[in-house]
Amino acid sequence: MAAFDDIKQLAHPYHMLNLMMSLSFLTAKFTPVLCEILFPEGDCGELTMWESEVMFFMIVIIAFRTRKSGSRTMLAYISVASTYAKLCNVLLWFSADPVYGILYLVFAITHFLLVGEPVYQGPENLTYFQGKELDEELQRDKNTVWLITFYTAWSPACSSLAPIFAKLSAQYALDNLKFGKIDVGRYPDAAKKYHINDSAFSLQLPTISIFKKGTEVERRPCLDANAKFQKFYFTEDNIKASFDLNNLYLQCKKDLEAKKGKKEAHVKAE
After folding, report:
1. Which of 59, 74, 159, 205 is the most buried (most CB within 10 A)?
2. 21, 109 in Cβ contact below 8 A?
């Protein structure tokens, strides 16, 4: 079912154009008619030594980043691969002809601005924090347990987590168990305060933290005994298990009922 959903999402214009741009240089090189038009003085059907090196470097980077992305879905892999493939295509098109490179960049920027990535449209119960709002909320109400996702809009791994986290929020949210998100790309002060590396090579995007009584008690991914970040796969089952969401939900619900019982008893006493 998950694979079928991924295939449906890949049919979206955003992903289709992403794949086309990722494969554009190779397609042009190995399609005889296109190659003769675009590279009249070049070798069709084969890559130069430099082009092969760029391709090899791209494969290594994609393999490394998908391994570190913390996701096992087909769509997540394709999103990560497309990001780095497009960067390599910029180099390849510029090396072939600066005009081609400029045209490719213009098309890529237009695609980014006009064809938005498909977003989750299902139910959610999330609070989106800006700037210092998260700090203020954690200090304002220390009786609420918060699960917070630290993310950036440009990270494919964060995009893959978004629908999963939204579904969990719709399923588990209570008056004293809430879910929130903050974009550390837009609010770097939050990244600094909560020790999130928001660089392009970060192993902490995304990060999910749980706060109790206004204090962080656990996060994923986390450091191991050697002060290295442990790989964490952001699947629905992994998140539920790591933060013990089922028992946390039952405990928070029990606390709500106890609080309600005390309030009703107090009203009767009056």
Report:
1. 205
2. no
For residue 223, pLDDT beyond 60? yes
Beta bridge partners of 174: 177
Return d(Cα 2, Cα 10) in angstroms, integer: 12
HSE of 31 in the Cβ direction (CA atoms, 13 Å)? 10
- At 47-64, the pLDDT tens digits run 888 889 888 988 888 777
Residue 121 pLDDT grade (very low, low, confident, very high; cuts 50, 70, 90): confident
End-to-end CA distance of the chain: 56
Long-range contacts of 136-142 (CB under 8 A, 24+ apart): 137/180, 138/211, 138/214, 139/214, 142/213, 142/214
**What is the mean predicted confidence (pLDDT) over 75-80?**
75
CA 270 to chain centre: 52
At residue 51, the 3 state secondary structure works out as: helix
* Cα angle value 172/173/177 (rounded, 5°): 110
What does the pLDDT read at residue 66? 67
